[in-house]
Amino acid sequence: MKILVPIKRVADPANANKVKVSGATVTHDGLEWVMNPFDEWALETALRLTENAADKTRVGEIVIVSIGPKEAVETIREALGKGAERGILVEGTDAELDSHVVAQVLAKIVEKEKPDLVLMGKQSADGDSNVAGTKLAETLDWPILNYVSHIETADDGKTLTIKRELDVGVQTLKVTGPAVLTVSDRILKPGTVKNGVTPASFEYGDLGDLNSRLSNLKNIMAGRKKPLDETTIAALGVEPKRVDSYVGFKLPAGRSGNTTYLATVDELVSKLQTEAKVL
Amino acid sequence: MTDVLVVAELSLGKIRKTTLSAIAFAKTVAEGTSGEFDVLVIGDGAEDAADEVTGFGARKILTAAIEGDYRCEAYAPTVAEVGKEYGVLVACASTYGKDLMPRVAAKLGAGVASDISKVAIEGGELVYTRPMYAGNVIGTLKVTTDVQVVTVRQSEFEPAAESGGSSDTEEVDVVEADVASRVQSLGIEVVQSERPDLSEADVVVSGGRSLKSAENFEKVLEPLVDALGAAMGASRAAVDAGYVPNELQVGQTGKVVAPKLYVAVGISGAIQHLAGMKGSKVIVAINKDKEAPIAQVADYFLVADLFDAVPALTTAVKKAKG
Are the C-beta atoms of B131 and B137 separated by less than 8 Å? Predict the structure, then answer.
């Protein structure tokens, strides 16, 4: 099975409250750059779909693609260190990119690479839009399955049984690939990804607060030597014509007042009745 | 003059209340630009459900009956075909709207303003405000295509009120797409609860990992939820641990709520959780650790062991409410 995993390099979401704005730009001074955690879940899912976890062998291919600045090479290398086979950097700046352009670029990569699946985060932790994956699927005339929490395939993604999390409940679907899948928070719980190769008795451990498996020094070094192609939006024949334009950014108004610390339930009830007037 | 098409959301043949937030947006835009708005009711049972949205001042209610469970591949072609005549297409930013509308936008080559919290009309142009970076940055954007596609955050758009009268209803042709045959729904386990809907409740009580088990959610938290007539929510950690189903997750990747009262029980307050509740009017935290990040947004912080405090609070609330 061949899977394309698009990943975005974002300012560390754990410190999103330290982001600053200035007119029509967002600045990230002093923040670390990391792999978009939503994409990282997709990467881990793709790794599980393309390995025999019991004997730790790879049984498929993962191609990583990132659209962004030169520095995104580091993020791609991180994914290669975790086990992906190849990387592609498409150089582009934030000013050129919106979900429309991203979908066009990814569609060109899909046409070249012909993967069985595209697996990606449902949103980026910075833009929070939730749009690019679905636009990509429509551009390719492929199905889109958003918010996927379970994947089962026994024929390299040609047919898949999927569960996905909707506001109203969990939907189960049968899908004929190739397809674009975005993953939900629950995709990395034990027992959610089955590829027909890893024995059914094998159980992945709980990753806890990690977004994907840890790598070791040997794999990180191996990742440095894996093939990584660089191209540009123009070389792919895509016109970077955005269909939206951000005219400004600001920080949200802080919550008024300070926190009142209370030691007893009686004090709390009294505050809620007389001060907040919500009881 | 901007005409708006509202894409209604159906579940089990009924209009979901999310639709009323999209109608509220449509009214603002139509009134502010001297345009009009129509509502497209699409899905299984569309014709019967159309009656539910007839009294909101729409010029027309359009219906497209498509049998079976929702699939974006089956709905998008019809929405795009009907929608191409409008200036703005809008749905609520529920999982339904966020799944369907980008596909419609791609069909029309349209830009998307996703999960907006506000719309303003400046010189006839629509200017959207939307939270980004888990609510830590507020972006202002314009969409530059002829058709604009919008999803609205339910907690930021008060549901439209009925204004009387009744709109004419018209059936539209369903447009089919081959790609829909590649996606077959085997069912949606719709979760129904006696409690108010999380996205619509005036009071929300959420529990975190500190509750330690599904049983404690039931025995410790639920009595407080019910004493307050509240909806129940949860942190991602509690959902991941399997204590409660995923529909209850509040946060950047769950539901965004803005009730009058939000009670966070045993929730430390990760940035991703704050993103889903910091718009609440009054926030109460109950936590042993007074340094927990939830303090950044809490108005009242009861420093206590939740296993002592919650039952006591439940008793006190019952007494206060008589």
Answer: yes
Residue of B21, B72, B133, B257 to mutate for A, most A C-beta atoms under 10 A: B133
Q: Which domain holds residue A103?
A: 2-275
Residues of A in contact with B115 (CB under 8 A): 128-130
Over residues A179-205, the pLDDT tens digits come to 999 999 999 998 999 999 999 999 999
Please write the tens of the pLDDT for every residue from A64-101: 999 999 999 999 999 999 999 999 999 999 889 999 99
User: Least CB-CB distance to A265: which of B186, B281, B309?
Assistant: B309
State whether B17 and B70 are in the same domain. yes
ipTM of the complex, rounded to two decimals: 0.96
Burial class (CB in 10 A: 0-12, 13-18, 19+), B36: middle
Residue with tokens 């938290």: B221
Same domain for B122 and B239, yes or no, is no
Q: Identify all chain B residues contacting A130, using CB atoms and an 8 Å cutoff.
A: 98, 102, 114-115
CATH of the domain at B119: 3.40.50.620
Element (H, E) at B25: helix B18-32
Q: What SS3 state is found at B103?
A: helix
With an 8 Å Cβ cutoff, are A142 and B179 in contact? yes
Q: Per the structure, how many domains does chain B have?
A: 2
Number of domain units in chain A: 1
Which residues, 6 or more positions from A156, have their beta carbon under 8 angstroms from its beta carbon? A1, A60, A116
Residue type, A98: D
Please give the residue of chain B at the shortest CA–CA distance from A255.
B297
Nearest Cα to B128, choosing from B94, B93, B99? B93
In a domain, B23, yes or no: yes
In a domain? residue B287: yes
Residue B27: other Cβ atoms inside 10 A: 19
Which positions in chain A touch B140 (Cβ < 8 Å)?
A: 246-250
Same domain, B128 and B232: no
- Are A116 and A157 within 8 A, CB to CB? yes
pLDDT of chain B, 322 residues: tens digit per residue: 999 999 999 999 999 999 999 999 999 999 999 999 999 999 999 999 999 999 999 999 999 999 999 999 999 999 999 999 999 999 999 999 999 999 999 999 999 999 999 999 999 999 999 999 999 999 999 999 999 999 999 999 999 999 989 999 999 999 999 999 999 999 999 988 899 999 989 999 999 999 999 999 999 999 999 999 999 999 999 999 999 999 999 999 999 999 999 999 999 999 999 999 999 999 999 999 999 999 999 999 999 999 999 999 999 999 988 7
| B169 and B316, same domain (yes or no) | no
Interface of A with B in 31-90 (CB under 8 A): 38
pTM given for the model: 0.96
Asked if B139 and B222 sit in the same domain, the reply is: no
What is the tally of helices (H) and strands (E) in chain A? 6, 18
Its domain, for residue B212, covers 203-320
Q: Which of B182, B211, B226 is the last residue of a domain?
A: B182
Which of the listed residues B128, B153, B182 is the one where a domain comes to its end? B182
Q: In this complex, is the C-beta atom of A159 within 8 Å of any C-beta atom belonging to chain B?
A: no
For the cut 70, the answer to whether the pLDDT of residue A256 exceeds it is: no
